[in-house]
Every structure is written in C-alpha cells, then in structure tokens.
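Figure 2 data, in text form.
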Amino acid sequence: MLNNVVLIGRLTKDPEVRYTSASNTLVANFTLAVGRSFAKQGEERQTDFIPIVVWGKTGEFASKYFKKGMQVSVVGRIQTRSWDDQASGQKKYATEVIATEVGFADSKREDATSGNNTNVANTFGSIADVTATNGFSPNTDDDLPF
C-alpha cells in the first residue's frame, strides 16, 4: 500500500515552530491553501486548507525560508491521530500531511539573505528540489483565497 501526497499551494501564515519536550526535536507547522483543479458548473473553484507538519532539518528549512503567501511544494504522507479532549471529554481527530520534502514553487524567487536559492539547497542537502517546481503547474495569484 502507498501513502504519498504531493501538493503545491500557498502558506496562509508563517510556519509555527516548537520543540518536543523529550528530545528537543524541531517541529514546524503551517497550513497550505491548495486550489482544486476543477469547479462545479456555475461555481467558483474551491480551496482546501491542509495542515502540514515538518520535522527536523526539513522543518528548520521551512521555518527559516517560508513566509505567508509563498507558493511552496510539499511531498509527504497523510496521517491521522486522535486524542481525548480534557475540557469536553470528547474524542478529537486530526488529519495532517507529514512532510518529508518541501521546496519553493514560486516563479519569482526571492531570498533576501543570499539572492540565490541554490545556496539554500546546498546548505540543506537533504531537501529535494528547492529550486524547481517539479513540472507542476503552479496556481496564479488570482487563485488565492486571501
């Protein structure tokens, strides 16, 4: 069985960073606004808001270089989890994408520190394809829900 997700979308806000208490591992979270490629007749295209979780060096990369509104690519897997809410006593569920690779997908790339995303890719060698869109057709700014 295969659980593989490939997404291109825009960040709804800057990534949030936290560290695990047990091992002090960095975890970055952000939401990706992804436009659907179809629309029902007479309706506008819909946008899905997908929670993304990025661990370790890949999360460090995302937290350092990703900003609200940027178009990015994400490769990962869908994961669900559940927990008992202490306040309501109800079981809660979450579905998220656990990213294994992230990259830039904007046609206009801006790196304020070096002016060259190739340097970013070399610094974070484990991050695949931070300078290309992998052949995907990115959304236009007109598709933004915000």
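Caption note: Residues 5-143 form a domain with the OB fold (Dihydrolipoamide Acetyltransferase, E2P) fold (CATH 2.40.50.140).
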